[in-house]
């Protein structure tokens, strides 16, 4: 896949998946997850923590501090509302535009900067442009950045909470390959948890449910019905019924 720095093992999996898509059999996609998990350990676990001799860009620190610091950052992630949307727009709107204009490519030289860039491309637009097509327009950029980063092992060199944000661009992709990868990576993170670390296991178990819900929506509809109104797509009767039961549209 041009533009993605992935290992040969991962490329073989991608080629195998394309054959599955041609067969148009959803149950085979689910079976493919086991195959993907079996290949994920070698190509994605060889990287060790990298350190840079260069001082970190203050905008990287600012982005990471805003998103992860504080006693309950998850409230900002999942229950921020208009106040958080406005705060992110005021503090990071200009930086998001720089990220979208490919002006922050130097951030991808190390894990923390790469994650900060992913947040600017994948998370903050959902706050700044909520309810509009622009909320999703930099998703392809985020997916490209995160795929290359995962291939380098960057996701394994940050905290577990931060690690999960490397996988969200995969979950946000409206295609089964991204969904299968997101589920498999999240399941692999749970499998690495120490048996007695109940708090961490609970975190990844919640993340897996989140990943499953995204994947199942794509399996059922081939897209996320919750995006239809924002981007001007007409919902099918089945999607309308689904959204009544599942307002999140996963």
UniProtKB/TrEMBL annotation:
Protein name listed in UniProt: DUF924-domain-containing protein
Signal peptide span: none
Record-linked PANTHER family: DOUBLECORTIN DOMAIN CONTAINING 2 (PTHR23004), DUF924-DOMAIN-CONTAINING PROTEIN (PTHR23004:SF7)
Superkingdom, natural source: Eukaryota
InterPro entries xref list: DUF924, TPR-like_helical_dom_sf
One matching Pfam family: DUF924
SUPFAM superfamilies attached to this UniProt entry: TPR-like (SSF48452)
């Amino acid at each position: 896949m041009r533009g993605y720095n992935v290992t040969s093992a991962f490329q073989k999996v991608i080629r195998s998946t394309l054959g599955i898509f041609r067969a148009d059999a959803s149950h085979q996609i689910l079976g493919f997850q086991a195959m993907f998990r079996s290949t994920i350990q070698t190509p994605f676990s060889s990287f060790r923590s990298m350190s840079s001799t260069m001082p970190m860009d203050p905008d990287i620190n600012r982005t990471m501090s805003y998103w992860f610091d504080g006693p309950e950052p998850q409230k900002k992630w999942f229950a921020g509302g208009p106040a958080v949307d406005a705060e992110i727009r005021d503090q990071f709107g200009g930086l998001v535009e720089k990220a979208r204009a490919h002006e922050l490519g130097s951030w991808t030289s190390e894990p923390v900067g790469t994650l900060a860039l992913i947040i600017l491309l994948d998370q903050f637009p959902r706050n700044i442009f909520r309810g509009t097509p622009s909320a999703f327009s930099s998703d392809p950029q985020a997916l490209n950045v995160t795929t290359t980063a995962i291939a380098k092992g960057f996701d394994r060199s940050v905290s577990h909470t931060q690690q999960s944000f490397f996988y969200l661009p995969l979950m946000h992709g409206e295609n089964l390959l991204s969904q299968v990868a997101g589920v498999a990576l999240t399941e692999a993170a749970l499998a690495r948890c120490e048996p007695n670390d109940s708090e961490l296991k609970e975190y990844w178990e919640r993340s897996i449910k989140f990943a499953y819900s995204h994947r199942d929506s794509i399996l059922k509809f081939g897209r996320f019905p919750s995006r239809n109104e924002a981007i001007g797509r007409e919902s099918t009767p089945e999607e309308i019924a689904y959204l009544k039961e599942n307002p999140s549209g996963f």
